[in-house]
Amino acid sequence: MAETRDPENTLIMETSKGKIVIETLPGVAPLHVARVKELTREGAYDGVVFHRVISDFMAQGGDVQFGNKESSSYHPGRAGMGGSDKPDLAAEFSAERHVRGTCSMARSQSPNSANSQFFICFTDAPWLDKQYTVWGKVVEGMDIVDKFERGEPVRNPDHIISVKVEADL
């Protein structure tokens, strides 16, 4: 029997390479899931690039301040240094593992500095476990994530065209 998705906790992300479906984990990281859904519903992630994509590690995006290629504040050299106009979040570390397809929040050295940026793991990254907040997992489209242009920073970055909460479609 096929597992049914919860539309309120499923994100449909259209990217420059194709569609990615993310199942959020509100039982694991309620504050982070609420933030991602809030920014999603505001359209804040639409147009945002994946500015840091490292082979055999992860693809990072979500800088709504400097990473939105459709915004006048877009700054490729600063993408990855910004967040949103919302306050930073307290860490919600859990026993969830950083494995292929994991969606986790990016942050600075401070554990309580996650804001809008996130990353998707290409491979298992156990050294991140209990150090970064896991908030979701890719359930469709990891083959799309695998196609993202690589770089630190990425010269011609892939981007989010739109992301929606499935319940809103």
Q: What is the CATH first-level class name? A: Mainly Beta
Radius of gyration: 14 Å
Number of strands: 8
Average of pLDDT: 96
Q: What is the tally of helical segments?
A: 2
**What's the story with the biggest beta sheet?**
8 strands, antiparallel
- Multimeric state of these chains? single chain
Query: What's the CATH H-level superfamily name?
Result: Cyclophilin-like
| H and E order | EEHEEEEEHE
| Total individual domains | 1
Structural class: alpha+beta
Strand order of the largest sheet: 3-4-6-5-7-2-1-8
Instruction: Specify the helix fraction band.
Output: 10-25%
> How would you describe the shape?
globular
Short characterization:
By secondary structure, this protein is an alpha+beta fold. 10% of the residues lie in helices and 24% in strands.
Q: What would the keywords be for this entry?
A:
24% strand, 8 strands, single chain, alpha+beta, Cyclophilin, 169 residues, eight-stranded antiparallel sheet
Description of the molecule:
It is built from two helices and eight strands. It is an alpha+beta fold. The protein has a single domain, classed as Cyclophilin-like (Cyclophilin, Beta Barrel), CATH 2.40.100. It has an eight-stranded antiparallel beta sheet. The longest helix has 13 residues.
What order do the helices and strands come in, and which of them pair?
Elements: E1 10-15, E2 19-24, H1 30-42, E3 52-54, E4 58-61, E5 102-105, E6 118-121, E7 134-140, H2 142-145, E8 160-165
Antiparallel strand pairs: 1-2, 1-8, 2-7, 3-4, 4-6, 5-6, 5-7
